Amino acid sequence: MASLPTTTSGYRIDLTAGSFDGLRLDETIPVPELGARDVLITLQAVSLNYRDIAMPLRLYPAYTKEDVVPCSDGSGIVLAVGSEVKALKAGDKVCPTFFQDFEDGYATKESRATSLGGLNDGVLRKHAVFNEKGLIKLPDFLSAQEASTLPCAALTAWNALFGVEGRALKPGHWVLTQGSGGVSLFALLFAKALGANVVATTGEKSKEERLKDLGADLVINYRENPTWGLTAKEHIEKQGGTGAQHVIEVGGETTMEQSLKAVAPEGLISIIGFLGGGMGERKTGFWDCFASACLVRGVLVGSKKQFRDMLSFMEEKGVRPVVDEKVFTFEKAREAYEYLQAQKFFGKVVITIPE
Ligand SMILES: NC(=O)c1ccc[n+]([C@@H]2O[C@H](COP(=O)([O-])OP(=O)(O)OC[C@H]3O[C@@H](n4cnc5c(N)ncnc54)[C@H](OP(=O)(O)O)[C@@H]3O)[C@@H](O)[C@H]2O)c1
């Protein structure tokens, strides 16, 4: 076997910059020797999440390691495995999981401490070593670019829709998605593949038709219609429903008020993101939840078991991730960050990594 790399190139974030100037290429990132349960992979594609731009901009509300290798979502090929690895072999297509040690059940303090691209070095590099527990083998139907979109964005949407026993999405249910970002588009794709109905919002006229093309039953422009939650509820009631059984809450404090207007009695609001900023600006809380008679649940990505379930569902239903038409090369990673920040994309923003 050819000798394995001892160093690799990848990006790091200098957090003190407070801007994308903090992204710097490091050509000498050490590649550790393989332990018995370790797997060396060659990364082929990385996709960006809002979290990845929030970190260098110092907008991320959780601790970030100084000089971290960014990004949680990527896919690659196994280059070599440690002596005790049985489930993977050289040449297998894999994704590192967002939480490196979270097989099933509820996220614990310990499993949460194993997240990639913030607390621990992530995937925006050419090679990386992971414990076999932190890798998932991919089916053949997904390209490397498509697979790179799954570990955080897709799994979060999956967990929101299917993660609570007794509240899993069913055919005929209504889902409300906010904006056309990564998590929301996956929620739309999964819901339509199951035979559920979707009200999608967007702030961009040009994206309205594209959301309809993906199957959205109603699209509301949240900039033109600030009471979009109420409009969604009225529409669902006209169709004989009682409101949205699932709300994909990615806006945060600024959108929660309308989410509570849209949700069905006993429906589930999945609190996922903070895209709208304005932390603490609008206070929705106790009485609003009480009056809406709904369930409100914070979602933290998902487990490896949920990842496997999601892959089976995608294969069975033919669900393919939407990748934006503009794909960036490794050298142009900063441009990809700027492109995501400008929010003109439709589908996941992907960076390809050459061999
Ligand atoms: N809790 C978790 O486990 C978890 C996991 C993944 C993501 N997140 C969080 O969830 C949020 C979404 O992440 P993402 O990666 O999917 O984001 P993203 O792909 O960057 O989404 C950006 C899009 O969101 C829409 N948007 C922006 N501001 C909005 C607002 N005020 N109201 C409604 N839509 C708005 C816009 O869509 P239009 O252009 O169509 O308007 C924008 O293009 C982020 O806050 C992220 O940190 C949390």
Structural key phrases:
single chain; 355 residues; alpha/beta; Quinone Oxidoreductase, Chain A, domain 1; Rossmann fold; 7-stranded mixed sheet; 6-stranded parallel sheet; globular; binds NADP nicotinamide-adenine-dinucleotide phosphate; Enoyl reductase (ER) domain-containing protein
List the helices and strands in order. EEEHEEHEEHHEHEHEHEHEHEHEHE
Please state the CA-atom Rg, rounded to the nearest Å: 20 Å
- Stated plainly, the CATH topology of the largest domain is called Quinone Oxidoreductase, Chain A, domain 1
| Beta strand count | 15
The 3D shape can be described as globular
Give the biggest sheet: 7 strands, mixed
Organism: Cladophialophora chaetospira
Pfam families: ADH_N, ADH_zinc_N
InterPro entries: ADH-like_C (IPR013149), ADH-like_N (IPR013154), ER (IPR020843), GroES-like_sf (IPR011032), NAD(P)-bd_dom_sf (IPR036291), Zinc_ADH-like (IPR052711)
Protein name: Enoyl reductase (ER) domain-containing protein
What would you note in describing this structure?
This is Enoyl reductase (ER) domain-containing protein. GO terms for molecular function: oxidoreductase activity. The protein is of the alpha/beta class and 355 residues long. It has two domains: 7-149 and 322-352, Quinone Oxidoreductase, Chain A, domain 1 (Alpha-Beta Complex), CATH 3.90.180; 155-298, 3-Layer(aba) Sandwich (Rossmann fold), CATH 3.40.50.720. The chain has eleven helices and 15 strands. The strands form three sheets. Strands 3, 4, 5, 6, 7, 14 and 15 form a seven-stranded mixed β-sheet that branches. A six-stranded parallel β-sheet has the order 10-9-8-11-12-13, sandwiched between helices. A two-stranded antiparallel sheet has the order 1-2. α5 (182-194) links the parallel β8 (174-177) and β9 (197-202). The structure holds NADP nicotinamide-adenine-dinucleotide phosphate. NADP nicotinamide-adenine-dinucleotide phosphate (NAP) is lined by residues 49-51, 152-153, 156, 178-183, 202-204, 207, 222, 250-251, 254-255, 272-276, 299-301, 340, 343.
